[in-house]
Amino acid sequence: QSALTQPASVSGSPGQSITISCTGTSSDVGGYNYVSWYQQHPGKAPKLIISEVVNRPSGVSNRFSGSKSGNTASLIISGLQAEDEADYYCGSYTSSSTLVFGGGTKLTVL
Amino acid sequence: EVQVVESGGGLVKPGGSLRLSCAASGFTFSTYTMNWVRQAPGKGLEWVSSISSSSGYIYYTDSVKGRFTISRDNAKNSLFLHMNSLRAEDTAVYYCARGQLRLDYWGQGTLVTVSS
């Protein structure tokens, strides 16, 4: 049950696009289209922003999108805004019927 | 409106026990898998345990196997986590979250501190 691998931090200026990667194995990310992304602001609960690799829940901005290639999933945030500054976590269903998260990525909007 | 509200956290000594509760409302609780996820201070999210809708399938992360027990009462729309033999490394905010393949609703969490 090793954690998925994410970069510790990314940054971008308002209006730019950024990508956060999430690397796992064929037993999790690569084996299923059940990768989710969560946004967490300081002191708040995580919020689901992408599910099943590419699906956006109702109410989530279309500036958030997801993709996957092999064992690596990606979260893309376009038109960066100050309110996007937060921690982002990927999560995946696994072959053991459990869930596993990435270590988290801190997004700084410059 | 879907809501999940955790309770039962607090300060406990190493080796002690605690029971967390999660009260659910706004959805048909008995049809959903439920989870506990924890976050140590300043650290990332860690999935802890899940229980299927009818309690037929239960899973744990390796570090809590044999010490934690997840359960649910569908008649009372409630989820529980019984924690025994607590260690300092179990100190975290514990979140209750709905879902099997994605966690679409989360509570605000309850803080468990294990310290002498």
Provide a descriptive summary of the structure in words.
The complex is a heterodimer of chains A (110) and B (116). Helices cover 0% and strands 44% of the residues of chain A. Chain A is mostly beta strands. In chain A, strands 1, 3, 4, 7, 8 and 9 form a 6-stranded mixed β-sheet that branches. In chain A, strands 2-6-5 form a 3-stranded antiparallel β-sheet, with no helix packed on it. In chain A, β5 (64-69) and β6 (72-77) form a beta hairpin. Chain B is mostly beta strands. In chain B, strands 2, 4, 5, 6, 9, 10 and 11 form a 7-stranded mixed β-sheet that branches. Chain B has a 4-stranded antiparallel β-sheet with strand order 1-3-8-7, with no helix packed on it. The interface between A and B is medium-sized, with 27 and 22 residues.
Largest sheet of chain A: 6 strands, mixed
- Subunit arrangement of the protein: heterodimer
Q: What summary fits the major beta sheet of chain B? A: 7 strands, mixed
The gyration radius over C-alpha positions of chain B equals 13 Å
Number of helices of chain B: 0
Mean pLDDT across every amino acid position of chain B:
97
Termini Cα gap of chain A: 35 Å
State which percent range the strand residues of chain B make up.
over 45%
Shape of chain A: globular
Using the CA coordinates, give the radius of gyration of chain A. Answer: 13 Å
Low-confidence stretches of chain A: none
Q: What is the string of helix and strand elements of chain B?
A: EEEEEEEEEEE
Query: Structural class per helix/strand content of chain A?
Result: mainly beta
Structural class of chain B: mainly beta
Task: Produce a short descriptive summary.
The complex is a heterodimer of chains A (110) and B (116). Chain A is mainly beta and 110 residues long. Chain A contains no helices and nine strands.
Primary descriptors:
heterodimer, A: 110 residues, mainly beta, three-stranded antiparallel β-sheet, globular, B: 116 residues, four-stranded antiparallel β-sheet
